[in-house]
Structures are given as C-alpha cells and as structure tokens.
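Weekly puzzle thread! Below is a chain. First person to post its structure in token form gets bragging rights.
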Amino acid sequence: MYGAKMLKNGSKIFSLFVCIFVGSSVALPPRTWDAIFDAEGSGDYVSAKVEGQVRFFKYTYYGEVQPIAFTVSDGNFSFVVSGNLKVSSDKVESDFYATCNKTKEVWISCFNRPQKFGKENLVVDIKGIDLACNDDLYAIRDLRIKFKNETAQTWWDTKFEGKEKFKRKQLADFRIAEQEQRIAVKDASSEIVDSRDGKAYRTIKIEGRTWIAQNMNYEVPNESWCYENNDSYCERGGRLYTLEGARQACPKGYHLPRDREWQDMLTSLTQCYDGVQNCGAFGAKLKAKTGWHGGGGTDAYGFTVFSSGRRDVLGKGGRFVDMGEYAAFWSAQNGRNETIWIWVLGRMGDNMVRELAPNKNQAYSVRCIDGD
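Winning reply:
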C-alpha cells in the first residue's frame, strides 16, 4: 500500500491508503508541480506545437538515453529545445521516432506570465518540458533552451538558466517517475477486441472485476455521435451515447455498469469506505494526462478519463459542449422506471460524483464492466 494520508472527520481520524488494483501494486509518484512550485505562485502545464521535425541523435543503450532537439513555435512560446529522454530500447526499436514526429506536441511546465521582449510577448519562466508521443509523455532531462529572441535569451541566461537548474532536474526526475508508473500500469493491463467492429480496448482489473479502461467507440446509429461529428474525437475519446445507445454499446461479455458497480469500483481504488462522496481529492488520479484544459491528471489508476464533453438536447438536434472541461458516464438502471444516474468528473472537481441525468436523450460517454 502506498500514499498513507490522514483525514479528519469530526472527532474521528481515518487512515486513507491509496492502492492500484491492476494485477499488481504500483507505487504512486509524488505530485510534481505541487511538490516543487506550489509555494511560488500560480503555475501552468500547457501544450504547444513542435515546428518541423523532432531530431533524434545516437541512442545510448546503456542507460537508455535518447538525445533529442526540436523547435517550439506556438503563441507565447518560441525557442529551440535540446536534452535527453529516458526511453526503453524496445520502444526505440518500434515506431517511436515516427510516432513522436506524427504527434509534434510538447507539454510545458511554466509560470504563464508572458513578458514583452521587443515586439514579442513570450513566456520565459520555464521549469520543464515533456515530449508527447501519441498518448505517452517523456520528460526531457538535461534541458537546454535557446530563445530566438536575443533579449529573451539574455533574460533566461541571467534569471533562470543557472539558478533554476536544480529545480528543472527535480521536475524531470519526478516526471520520469510518473512515466515509469504509467508504463507499469499499462504492462499490468490487458486488451480485448470487440467482435462487432474489430476495435481493440485496454482493460484493467479492479478487485477481481475487469473494466474497459477506454471510452466505448461502437457506433449505435441515431443514438451515438462523435464530438462535433468529427471522427478524430472518437478515436481518442470514444462516442457520446444516449441512454438507449449506452445500453447497446458494450461488447459481448460486458455490460453497462450499474450504479452500485461504479461505487464499488471507486471505493476499491480509493480505499475510502466512508462513502465516495466523502473521500478526499482523487479526481486527478482518474484523469488522463492530457485532454483537459489547464493540464490533465496523473492517471495513477490507469482508468484514463478523458474530458470528452457531452451532447445536450437542443430542439430536434443537439449541441456539443464542454470538451476539455467535463466527462460523464452512464450507469445502468435495474429497472426501466428506476432513477437514471450519471458519474461526473469536472476540470475543477477533486473527485467523481453521482448526478441525476437530466434527460435520457442527453449523450455521455460509456465504460463497460465484465459480465452479461
């Protein structure tokens, strides 16, 4: 068991132990931003685009070190990055390089205070950079930054380059610990293939039950949609279903989770037996690393909740809202006249909460649990 934390409830004190039930226990890394920078003020973790190609140099099998260099040019970010990634040899020998150059995205830990340098407004107070390769993030060690703007470069050299080097190393070390934890979660998970359309889904074990750890992407005509009717959103965040569509979404051998099964799953993950609604903050551990405005969570449990938004009923049509801000999942009814519940996680929320579904024709995401 990992991460013991004391919670006070009235005159009683409860000990909350966080575990991961995915076949084997995996140690949770510390929260990086909170651990290092919280005392300094309001920080941010934001994405930016890579301009051109990510350049890879000679890989060192001993130590699994991959030197890289690339250019970031996106809004208030404009600089050249170089440094080292820690990447396993089997990953490098697959399609790692092509995947990184297809994604062309970084996530930047910074204090998001643009300053004026000549005619440019630039963010210079950068603490760390993670390279995105598909859904994986790789912390850059030995980070070196060269700003295109000479005045900004002088500011970096005098204010941050030397003085902040230790903190950048701390952040990279923490990020690598998170990276290794995510790999351990994936290694402990399995995969199923939906025989109806051939789509594959990752699964995890939670207290002996198998959950599909991705949003369902099985098309139910007239009862399911991609966000903004864009197929690319379905590929990552799954489809949005009406209640009737949700009842048809799960593959053979799985079903739409009942309300009690949602509660049991969250209780198992958090070890909070005083009721999920009374638990401390655990929302960040459910959230995916990316796909949320203002940065994602830690995905410590491997449940990987993306902010897929929802489809509201609007006249005879619908309106897609809240991608990046909100995720909600249907639960099954025991009877057709029973109350309809959804389980909701918001960008600013500290935990997952149960809410009444306002309308069975609203469209939300779907997860599935084993058993017909």
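Puzzle host: Confirmed. Bonus trivia for everyone else. The first strand starts at residue 2 and ends at 9.
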